[in-house]
Amino acid sequence: MSLARTDADDICDRSNCAPIREILDRVGDKWSLYVIAILEARSLRFSEIKRRVNGISQRMLTLTLRNLERDGLLTRTVGTATPLRVDYALTTLGRSLLQPIGELLSWALSNRRKIEKSRATYDRSRPEAQTRTRPRPVTGRGAPAGRVEP
After folding, report:
1. Which of 11, 33, 46, 80 is the most exposed place for a label (fewest CB within 10 A)?
2. Residues 12-32: tens digit of each pLDDT
3. Cα 37 from Cα 13, distance rounded (Å)
4. Domain boundaries, the chain
5. Which pairs count as long-range contacts for 59-68, CB under 8 Å and 24+ apart, including other chains?
6. Domain 14-131: assigned CATH number
């Protein structure tokens, strides 16, 4: 769907604006994007996903997986072997997100430097931007580090 070919009223009218926003919030949050991209190749165990998603906490990964499962984007399979094995895999619906997510990630990688340069130019040109608090970096365990001053 091209936004140029779509009537803006069709995108967000009274009957579908809230549900569409909820869906975009889910698939657009930073952890869901990573989890979906990581599960492209094969099903993975919780610990494997956690190792591959740098900075995510155990609680946040649990919530993300639960929400993606609830939305029908992945399945959770509990094996019968001992020790217990739980695998997560994309559903057909989840796989249908791979192309748009890939395009979004590719766009972000291609344009990262331009955006960083724009931000720096903007921040230098506006005194109020120089005194604002920058986003807090994430530590290796997923918890925000201390406040970072400009």
Report:
1. 80
2. 666 777 888 888 888 888 899
3. 31
4. 14-131
5. 60/31, 60/142, 61/31, 61/35, 64/29, 64/31, 64/32, 64/35, 65/35, 67/26, 67/32, 68/26, 68/32, 68/35, 68/36, 68/94
6. 1.10.10.10
